[in-house]
Amino acid sequence: MFLVGCGAPSPDPVLNDPPACYEELKQPSDPNAEQIATASTIFGIAVDDNGIYWSTGREVFAADKQTLTPMLVAGDQEPKSLAVHRGYLYWTNGPLKDYQVNRVRTDGSGFEVLVTKALGADSVTVTDSPGEGADHALVYWVKPSAGLVERVAVGPDGLLGGVQVIASNEDIPTWIAADEAGVFWGARVRGEIRMADVSSGIVETIVTGDSDPAELALDNDFVYWGSHGTGSIRKLPRKGNVAVDILASHQAGPDRLTVDDSHVYWTTAYSCGVMRVAKTGGEPEIIANRQPDANEIVVDDAYAYWTNFQPGSVLRVPK
């Protein structure tokens, strides 16, 4: 028996069926989940030591972790994915804002457009810049329709040079994750996980034969991802060349994913739940039930935070 969202065992999901738990959504939402904000639509979410950050269809907001009082950080932006790094928020825009890549300080000051006309830019992530000071960073994103993985370098005074192409002619690259050593992304149609070594620039395939790989996350030793088509949570040593380890199966459309020191956390597109499993494997646990359209997820030392896409909400639950 495997646990899935809404607290019911399930066979392998038929992914184009409606969620089996939609009837349960008419009941009160999980009483353990603390609501932080609502909006008609909520896209990205990020968290650091001080705050919680999220994006709606037009704005970027922040809330102090203690007071949970929302504050407008950037307006009129059509923000999509969202990342936070060393006091700055980064995001990509859609077509109404000419597919920009932007950043602003977490207090709302110092808004900058880093890149314009980044057609289709999505899934932004930010890392320290190897060999540079703490005020330097590398900003990565994918362009699925163009088959590109790109980055820019930024410093305390803004952009450092132009856009660098990390990989081209890629197969619908999605769900990028990066750190100072490597950049990883999914190739959805071919069912591959690809990676680029930051120091050498060499690009290689580390996973083949997957089915619609979804969001990725990293730690020092492994890359983790949700296999949307197979309904499983998987991990692989970062260098590849060994068998993929399946941490959880029978998950109804695992989509967004993150990790902490001990667990992997994910949302399920078709069973309205927020889940976790130990990095070493074991029985998956439901950490929040009855979450309609559960979408992006992040964690800190104390809480798991996630968004429900539409109607939009930001919630958290103790880990």
What does this protein structure show overall?
The chain is an all-beta fold and 319 residues long. The protein has one domain: TolB, C-terminal domain (Neuraminidase), CATH 2.120.10. The protein is built from no helices and 28 strands. The strands form seven sheets. The protein has a four-stranded antiparallel β-sheet, with no helix packed on it. Strands 2-3-4-5 form a four-stranded antiparallel β-sheet, with no helix packed on it. Strands 6-7-8-9 form a four-stranded antiparallel β-sheet, with no helix packed on it.
Kindly summarize this structure in a few lines.
The chain is mainly β and 319 residues long. It has strands at 34-39, 42-47, 51-56, 60-64, 70-74, 79-85, 88-93, 101-105, 112-115, 122-128, 137-143, 148-155, 158-167, 173-178, 182-187, 192-197, 203-207, 213-218, 222-227, 232-237, 245-248, 254-259, 263-268, 274-278, 285-288, 294-299, 303-308, 312-318.
Strand order of the largest sheet: 1-28-27-26
Span between N and C termini? 23 Å
Q: So, CATH architecture? A: 6 Propeller
Shape summary: globular
Query: What is the name of the CATH class?
Result: Mainly Beta
**Helical region count?**
0
Radius of gyration: 19 Å
By CATH's scheme, which homologous superfamily applies?
Answer: TolB, C-terminal domain
**Low-pLDDT segments, ≥5 res:** 1-28
* Residues in helices, as a percent range: under 10%
Assembly form of the protein: single chain
Tell me the CATH topology. Neuraminidase
Say how many strands there are.
28
Average pLDDT works out at 88
